[in-house]
Amino acid sequence: MEATTEILFDKLVYSCAFEKYRGLEQFIPEHFIGFQIAGETHAFHSQGNTVISENNVLLVRRNQLIRTVKYPSKEGKYQFLSIILDQDTLQQYALENKIVVEARYADDQKLFFEPDDFLKKYFVSLIPYIDKTKEATPRLADLKIREAIELLLQWNPDFKNLLFDFNAPYKIDLEEFMRQNYMFNVPVTSFAKLTGRSLSAFKRDFTRIFNTTPKQWLRDKRLEEAYYLIKHKKEKAAEIYLDLGFENLSHFYYSFKQKFGVTSSEV
């Protein structure tokens, strides 16, 4: 059975699966908090790998690239519930509560945070919406989202510098970023936004640094990594092509042979 995702009410998203499921690469444009109801989520991101186990609550920062694999529990079910904290909602909340950001949130902080029991109990209170035993009015939905913001700030007051920072991302080191994130199969527009550039500025800077186009560099970089893994780590093409940003195995085989003159099995 395929994984399903359902929007229970505005900004409350429920995901369910009954077998191991590999999610697509995702560009996360908004902050969100999530609760692992059942099973595990294995997340790969620029800072490494994170396992979100059952009954854990987490906060994910916006403007991130994430790839996930979802594992059902021993009982055979995967369930994850998330609340999207979009910029419009946060801006309105900051205005009403006269919140002023004092400093940028430290960039070296973890992508995932594990808040306290108050937030866990908050998510438990949302279970009736999953079971369809309760229906949320727009007003109630708005109150539940504001409650989540309040609980986050109660757990860590410094989160205000993260949640209410509405500035555009700073222009960051493009070369370092691309070498850390080349394996994510997302549009070039996402790479541009994450490095704090317009699409035209991104392409211009990219060509200056790498002396080639983003599309060509990404293809070559992924293939070079594949060659190394297959030849020196004895990996199988079928097991690594998705992790390296290729959409399908046949395209990977074709590109590999075109670049290196041999098939992956002949390396």
What's the gyration radius in Å? Answer: 21 Å
Low-confidence stretches: none
The helix-and-strand class reads alpha+beta
CATH architect. name of the largest domain: Sandwich
Strand order of the largest sheet: 1-2-10-5-8-11
CATH topology of the largest domain: Jelly Rolls
What is the 3D shape?
globular
The residue-averaged pLDDT reads 91
Largest sheet: 6 strands, antiparallel
* Strand proportion: 15-25%
Percent of residues in helices: 25-40%
The domain count comes to 2
Following the backbone from N to C, one meets helices and strands in this order, namely EEEEEEEEEEHEHHHHHHHHHH
Count the helices. How many?
11
Amino-to-carboxy terminus distance: 37 Å
For the secondary structure, the number of strands is 11
Task: Please give the CATH class of the largest domain.
Answer: Mainly Beta
The CATH homologous superfamily name of the largest domain equals Jelly Rolls
